[in-house]
């Protein structure tokens, strides 16, 4: 690999420190090591490591020129960090697309449906969604409901499937993430999660809602067992 750095002046750089990243596929942490030189051979080696905080790594990233540009937050944005953005949408009508082999699901394809107010979160290009019982901006301790959609697991993580994923996670990309969610096809239940209290189950719920002009019936939402704050802070 060849790398070139243009700094605009003649300067001499020496290796001082090294950052090591450790991960198990689910989480990661970093340690900082001083670079030491062996007296006899002159070969560099790493000294003892010390754990790094997220704040230190953020400062390091800013120093390397990757700081987030300033953004103007619209009213629907609930939380923002360098790694994640969370927003909510009011209850609305949206066209839904269904796929798979179930003929009952195929019969629902392309209809217009009422939807509850929703909370979306994008973290490291993963999309999560929860529902709200009331059509109003949630607060930190607002209890969330399970989003009543196929392709979503118990944590609210969306199986992206046919969804067109935006290249960025910014305020400007919110509408693209949201549009991608509704324009993809809902094809399957994702894990053991109760999506609705309706006696007819998932398909029974959306069957009665197809073409309805009434608001989404919140009594059919199930408890997600977490608040907005827990949803935002969850890894």
Give structural notes.
The protein is α+β, with helices and mostly antiparallel strands and 235 residues long. The chain has helices at residues 54-63, 103-106, 174-183, 201-209, 228-233; strands at 17-23, 28-37, 44-51, 77-80, 84-89, 92-95, 97-98, 112-115, 118-123, 126-131, 143-146, 185-186, 223-227. A hairpin with a 6-residue loop joins strand 2 and strand 3.
Features of this protein?
3-stranded antiparallel beta sheet, 5 helices, 6-stranded antiparallel beta sheet, elongated, 235 residues, alpha+beta
Please outline what is shown here:
The protein is α+β, with helices and mostly antiparallel strands and 235 residues long.
- Please tell me the overall pLDDT: 88
SSE string: EEEHEEEEHEEEEHEHEH
Helix content: 10-25%
> Which stretches are poorly predicted, pLDDT < 50 over at least 5 residues?
none
Largest sheet: 6 strands, antiparallel
End-to-end Cα distance: 33 Å
List the helices and strands and how they pair.
Blueprint: E1 17-23, E2 28-37, E3 44-51, H1 54-63, E4 77-80, E5 84-89, E6 92-95, E7 97-98, H2 103-106, E8 112-115, E9 118-123, E10 126-131, E11 143-146, H3 174-183, E12 185-186, H4 201-209, E13 223-227, H5 228-233
Parallel strand pairs: 7-12
Antiparallel strand pairs: 1-2, 2-3, 4-5, 5-9, 6-8, 9-10, 10-11, 11-13
């Amino acid at each position: 690999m060849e790398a070139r750095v243009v700094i605009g002046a003649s300067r001499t750089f020496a290796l001082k420190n090294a950052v090591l990243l450790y991960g198990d596929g689910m989480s990661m942490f970093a340690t900082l090591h001083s670079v030491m030189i062996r007296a006899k051979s002159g070969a560099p080696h790493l000294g003892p490591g010390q754990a790094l905080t997220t704040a230190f790594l953020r400062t390091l990233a800013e120093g390397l020129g990757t700081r987030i540009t300033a953004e103007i937050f619209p009213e629907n944005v609930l939380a923002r960090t360098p790694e994640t953005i969370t927003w909510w949408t009011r209850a609305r009508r949206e066209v839904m697309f269904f796929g798979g082999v179930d003929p009952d699901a195929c019969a629902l394809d392309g209809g217009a449906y009422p939807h509850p107010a929703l909370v979306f979160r994008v973290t490291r290009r993963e999309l999560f969604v929860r529902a709200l019982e009331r059509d109003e901006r949630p607060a930190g301790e607002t209890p969330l409901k399970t989003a009543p959609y196929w392709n979503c697991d118990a944590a609210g993580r969306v199986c992206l499937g046919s969804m067109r994923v935006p290249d960025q996670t910014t305020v400007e990309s919110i509408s693209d993430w949201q549009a991608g969610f509704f324009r993809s096809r809902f094809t399957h239940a994702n894990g053991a999660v109760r999506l609705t209290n309706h006696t007819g189950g998932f398909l029974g719920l959306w069957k009665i809602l197809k073409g309805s002009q009434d608001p989404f019936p919140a009594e059919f939402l199930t408890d997600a067992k977490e608040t907005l704050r827990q949803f935002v802070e969850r890894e």
